[in-house]
Predict the 3D structure of the following.
Amino acid sequence: MPIACIATRASFGVEAPAVTVEVHLSNGLPAFNLVGLPEASVKEAKERVRSALINAGFEFPMRRITVNLAPADLPKQGGRYDLPIAIGILAASKQIPLKSIEQHEFVGELALSGHVRYCQGLIPVIVEASKHNSTLVLPIDNREDAELVGFEKVCLATHLQSLAAYLHGQSQLPSIDLSLEWLSEEQSPQESCLSEVIGQYQAKQALEIAAAGNHNLLLLGPPGTGKTMLASRMMQLLPKLNYDEALEVAAIHSVAGNNIKPDRFYQRPFRSPHHTCSAVSLVGGGAQPKPGEISLAHRGVLFLDEVAEFPRKVLDCLREPMETGEVSISRAAAKLTFASRFQLIAAMNPSPCGDADNARASNEQIQRYLSKLSGPFLDRFDLTIDVPKLPIGALNSQNASAETTNTIARRVQNARECQLARSGVLNSELTGKQLKQDAKFSGDDLIFLEQSVHRLGLSVRSYHRIQRVARTIADLQQEECVSRAHISQALGYRAMDRLLASLSRQ
């Protein structure tokens, strides 16, 4: 019977569901019908496949060709179905043996000459194929994706002719080199260091606490005090990703069309969108949903400079992902969920004229400016730090005693290892139950904290966040139990609350 079934995989967020390409040749007037919920880019495959087969020296069957992409209720888009459709036509017309395509999966776009072209978003495909132990045929330009995953049963195709020779058993296709080893790059001495930041010792300490516990941090201060400089050095304090985390990040970037080079595979992402970005670009979306900036910052840092200039509706879109660690995007075509467990670092001025002590802005103008950040959004920050102007003489003073980034990074690494050994998660992810069981607070200290939260007018969420920050401070000091001094220090990192309270009293 002139019918062939080819295995391939679709793109559905960071998932790669299996798709069967069924090709049937029947008698009748020559026609080429493509069914199975194909998008416009898939429908165009008919002309690409026809030209590719003819130019590669194969016979294009002058019969009625029906191609079904099953399951029919799954939307298909992109040129990744060109290669499996072409292989299905060759198998159905007996130009290649049917047995040769068993236990194989094919993904790739075809040029009119028959060459196999690069496809984006194939890391989820490679991961799923490795779970099912299938031999996967990919474009040779996707070699880096295959090397990131390290799946040995990958065949890299360059042209339909060489692929047909492989399926006939006449030759072999190249694969990845499993003997290659990645060399970790040492930090160069020219790299920016925290010791270069003049003064701002409290801000540096808050940055260390935020890095150790994966806490969200808001830097509040006049222009030119070093807020952006401090935030840009955050990445050097964070440890490298492990393999599973790095592969998770690479899959999200692959779906978004961004390639991660092998030498940057273990580096945490750092995303810094401009304040004119839309909610869709920040959270993700589109007719065919794609990950946004918060998903591209997964396992890394999302830095919002001049956060008060972002539209309030855009910032409020971050509230649910910051709590759940994922974002669900619902569209008519599909509902997709992308991971978005990021660390938020934000910087802003305390006044529309830059400085809250400047007489150019009245209290009403300052309050109107600060009201661009909603209360629930500010509640998501574990630490809000005042970054004041430097005193006179600080710019010309010697900064020899300042700690280097490497010294602080070692303390951060030790604190993180302590947290993972105690609870299995970092302190920012501790639940209320884990805080009671593992954080080791005394009853009197918790009463003191509750009274302080009530006196400051903070929420229950802030009550738990201050506990997490205090636990991180104790971990950095290698203390087993949290003392009242740690709680008092954590309460001191509430600069925004103090600013709002001072404005309401005036």
